[in-house]
User: Fold this.
Amino acid sequence: MGTNVATSMVIGTQWGDEGKGKIVDYLSERADVVVRSQGGNNAGHTVVVDGKSFALRLLPSGILYDDKMNIIGTGVVVDPKVLLEEIANLEKEGKSAKSLYISDRAHVILPYHNRLDEAEESVKGDAKIGTTKNGIGPCYADKVNRIGIRICDLMDPVVFEKKLKFNVELKNKMLTAVYGFEPVNFEEILKDYLGYAEQLRPFVKDTNFAVIDAIQSGKKVLFEGAQATMLDLDHGTYPFVTSSHPVAGGASVGAGVGPNYLKNIFGVVKAYSTRVGEGPFPSELLDETGEYLRQTGHEFGTVTGRSRRCGWLDLAVVSYGAALNSLDYLAITRLDILDGLDEVKICVGYTRNGEAVQGFPASLDVLAKCEPVYETFPGWKTDISGIRKYEELPEAARRYVERIAEVTGVKIGIVSVGPGRDQTIDLVNVFA
Ligand code: GDP
Ligand code: IMO
Ligand code: MG
Assistant:
């Protein structure tokens, strides 16, 4: 076991939207199989192919190639309606989803999950998380509570009806009596979902064995992370997190693959920081530089259209992610967005009450009191989006990138200088 294993993984190291989709699409060219292992349609992965932009939510980013197997693994929560819309949109663009496998063990998002997501947020006041309202948290909560409905249940009309009835009765009591929300309609959901079931049936498989077989037969398997380390349910800025495990280990559980099979782990690092939703953000810029990053980087959510909060790159965050994910390489993205700045800053750690902070604080009160320690670098004031060789990057840009590697202790694998497939400087050629 472990010999000739050709796998790679792409993980977000910050608060999401680092450019994982772009990096997965780039690496997919040389892969055979692409696997999503957690999260759901809270993800929004934008991939640009030949100038055309695709916003993927549930479909693995390998779907844009014709010859890859694409897997929605066991740990993903699947909204059938959203998935079918995504497949239809893909087909409109002349692409096909015929290579898609959906795990029969994945959990299904139902309309009461979306409504509960909204209801739960509505009672939290200032403590609201700022979720995507896609029902992600309530669906994972049902899974943990062992009352969830899985894809294999959806495939069996008798089982589905029984489980749906139980859940709708329970959820409607909560929606109406606890939250004062409208109930959901059992008959309507039953009819709609039995229809979705027939449309999805051809894609449903035991994906655990599909992934393991692929690895054992020497295929190149790429794991596509969604969300990011700081949004991890256990390791992120709880409770301002998502309800799954975006860290590298989460892919092992979510895809049903032992940790020995996880190699070539890329941590995607956006060259500055962004966050959507609530929660602490020590290097946030509430000034014109933050606005410059938002406008220049078009930092508005793929899923919700919400304005993303922007700040300097925070290496206290990335170093924490480097450790938690046992990163092999960094993939630095959106370096080109910094092209126009006179100077750029990196937060290399925090102080609290004048003393250096060790590790990464668990308590949000402590984190909120941390002061970022910045190093300032001269900007490069050059358009780097056409550069394809590392040594051709301006010296100031290389210095910036190399400082990231130095502080985090992780090698640079990829530097991305634009959204396109070709706008990629690859220093390690994984899967070559
Ligand atoms: P993800 O959720 O991590 O996949 O990231 P998103 O797709 O939500 O956001 C990243 C955005 O940056 C997308 O619009 C990408 O097309 C774009 N992108 C990725 N890498 C680069 C890059 O190096 N430069 C620029 N300018 N855009 C990039
Ligand atoms: P990708 O894969 C950025 C954030 C939400 C909210 C919190 C919880 O595109 O990087 P949820 O709906 O998951 O219960 O919301 O997590 N969030 C993301 N932020 N990128 C994402 O995915 C996100 N998925 C969830 O904004 O703060
Ligand atoms: Mg995104």
The chain has 13 helices and 20 strands. The mean pLDDT is 96.
